[in-house]
Prior knowledge:
It is a single chain. This protein is globular. It is of the alpha/beta class. Helix 4 (112-121) links the parallel strand 2 (104-109) and strand 3 (127-131). The strands form 2 sheets. Strands 3-2-1-4-5-11-10 form a 7-stranded mixed beta sheet. It has a 4-stranded mixed beta sheet with strand order 6-9-8-7. The protein has 7 helices and 11 strands.
Amino acid sequence: MNQKSILQRLRWLLILPYALFDYLFVFADQKLIQRTRNIRLIPNERHRRGGKYAFSEWAHVIGIFQTLIYQQLESKQGNTILDIGCGTGLLGIASEPFVGQGGKYIGLDVRGKDIDFCRQHYPSENFEFVHFEVNNPAYTSGQQSTHLKWPVESGTIDIATALSVWTHLKEEDAIFYFREIGRVLKPGGKAIVTFFLLDETYEKSLPLRSNAKGRFHLTAQDKWVFDQSSYGSDAWRHPKWAEVPESAIGVTNAGFERIVEDSGLKLIEQHHGNWKEMPGVFFQDVCIFQKI
């Protein structure tokens, strides 16, 4: 039995008792919540996906993005929020305080099973979940691949969020759907989008990675080195381990400029991610844009 098989078996030995513990913990924890009411919506471990599994990490990331959303909204209630790639609702939970009466949260995702879960788990009349049936080789390889506009009216969104979405889009998809953000935002509206930006900070981190083998988040082949061209692009790259490029995609400065140009958006704020071997607000790079 190889090392990978042994690690997989050990992981399942940990997950099975954790699932039972988590069910009991979440049930009990919800009874004790006093001030942060929206985290009552954190689902049990079976439905926590998107690279964030632990209850504590969900709560942590919800807090980060709830703060970022708050900082970018002029009006703190009654907002229309579009969550691109909503998954099982992590940013829906972060958005809840800012919807309120007269507002609306719209969650889009390519995975039908995630949309089905969200419709059951978040039954609020102010929450809407839409299955967006497009192809993504990493998640929905069986769906149609044609670029489709989102079923959202132009100029109706106060703020759009996209957590770990552009890190799974090839060049033409990244550019097309970024223009969709520009289309749906109101004038002056904001967008919070995460990336793996292969910028100067990333380049400076590469020697640190080669000297840090054995650290808990690194393997013999560092996970976050983007050294493979994605579909022949000169600006979109993926790591060697990716079975398809869309498993994890980084974009260079030149590629980032291509994404933003002609979108009607301007970059107004940026936070480096801690994946670059430095302290950061979040794991991925967080970029905030405003509609011009």
